[in-house]
Design a protein that fits this description.
This protein is an alpha+beta fold. The protein is about 30% helix and about 25% strand. The strands form four sheets. Strands 2-3-7-8-11-14-15-16-18-19 form a ten-stranded mixed sheet. A three-stranded antiparallel sheet has the order 1-12-13, with no helix packed on it. Strands 4-6-5 form a three-stranded antiparallel sheet, covered by helices on one side. It is globular. About 45% of the residues are buried.
């Protein structure tokens, strides 16, 4: 069987050489800002390109930030590294396993999102993801029997947590990859809080997870350009999302890793209830909230749930969201309306690709507002 492997597309605009975050210039720094140095760096961690921007009166600590991500992956989250806590939990499935307070805290939050999303986000479907291997060297459409076998031992309800003790049913395994970059960003935030010389920072992990810390010297927002999931060019943007202070942004989309077979797009975001790529009518979701883990996990859950159910989940977590559907409609939660500026307005161009724009709560309206 022959498959067409397609290029992974970043959801955010490309800036200079590395990032997927575009920061718009805002004039000259004030005199009091001149002591603040700006350091940028690009590295590789958590299986993705990491771009970093640091504002500080002290030393350049970008390499330390990258090392934090590497440590989180190697010693906490990896399901293949024998020194990782998740590896040890999986190896000991069927028994009670003691884990660190840090991992216990993360698992508690992850299981809460799994429950609140009715399993749309599920940390136990790693075997299913590896079975499809979308974006990997052996991507394929598995047989129905293979999918059912992979699903047999999955399910977030098979995992229970009691303080620092975790128990999983025999055959079940944990894979926290869908929240991993967000967890990495949360760990970096805790470190930055101890660095008094650092006034602001930006972390961009592979274009799908972004963390902003503090405020830029000029006090302006951190602006993230969001591209059209079906754009032919990576620089065709839907608009710009403003982040203020310390916030986290995550995206999930069916264009990041996928292949097409017989005209059908098979993407990497799995629906735990079916074992197949999610079909909710959504092509991309962007979430903004105040923690990395929640931003990461919620964007995945919302992609599986679709617009209405996803919006209700975001409301429960006090998060803002942007949804793009298969008909090129863009839906914004109330909070995202205050953050999002349409690209055609920024560029003052009327001939950009047309989109329909409305809030989530206007979806049933017969006359959505058309932007020109």
């Amino acid at each position: 069987m022959k498959y067409q492997a397609l290029k992974k597309k970043a959801f955010f605009a490309t800036a200079v050489l590395t990032g997927t975050v575009m920061l718009f210039p805002v004039g000259c720094p004030a005199a009091a800002e001149k002591d603040i140095q700006n350091y940028t760096d690009t590295d590789f961690a958590m299986d993705t390109v990491v771009s970093e921007t640091l504002y500080t009166t002290g030393d350049d600590i970008n390499s330390k930030l990258t090392s934090i991500l590497t440590d989180v992956e190697k010693n906490l989250l990896s399901w293949t590294n024998e020194s990782s806590q998740i590896y040890k939990v999986n190896a000991d499935c069927g028994n009670d396993t003691e884990i660190s307070e840090e991992l216990s805290g993360y698992l508690e939050r992850i299981l809460a999102i799994a429950k609140d999303s009715n399993g749309a986000f599920d940390p136990t479907i790693g075997e299913l993801i590896r079975l499809w291997d979308i974006g990997g060297e052996n991507q394929r459409i598995p047989g129905k029997d293979e999918i059912q076998e992979a699903l047999k031992d999955s399910g977030y309800k098979k995992v229970s947590l009691d303080g620092n003790m975790v128990h999983m049913d025999k055959g079940c395994s944990l894979d926290l990859g869908a929240a991993g970059k967000g967890i990495g960003c949360d760990s970096i935030l805790e470190y930055l809080k101890t660095q008094k010389e650092v006034s602001a920072a930006l972390m961009n992990l592979g274009g799908s997870s972004v963390m902003t810390y503090g405020s830029k010297p000029d006090g302006s927002s951190w602006n993230v350009a969001v591209t059209d999931p079906r754009a032919e060019n990576d620089d065709d943007y839907l608009g710009v999302v403003a982040l203020n202070g310390t916030e986290f942004l995550s995206t999930s989309g069916d264009y990041e890793k996928y292949f097409i077979e017989n005209g059908v797009r098979y993407h990497h975001i799995m629906d735990p209830s079916t074992g197949y790529p999610a079909k909710s009518g959504v092509t991309g979701v962007t979430v903004v909230c105040d923690t990395g883990l929640e931003a990461d996990a919620l964007s995945t859950a919302c992609f599986v749930l679709g617009v209405e159910k996803g919006a209700q989940l975001l409301k429960a977590y006090g998060a803002d969201g942007l949804f793009v559907d298969e008909d090129h409609h863009v839906y914004l939660t109330e909070g995202m309306k205050e953050r999002f500026t349409v690209w055609r307005i920024l560029q003052n161009e009327a001939d950009l690709p047309a989109i329909w724009f409305m809030t989530v709560w206007q979806r049933e309206c017969s006359y959505p507002r058309y932007l020109r």
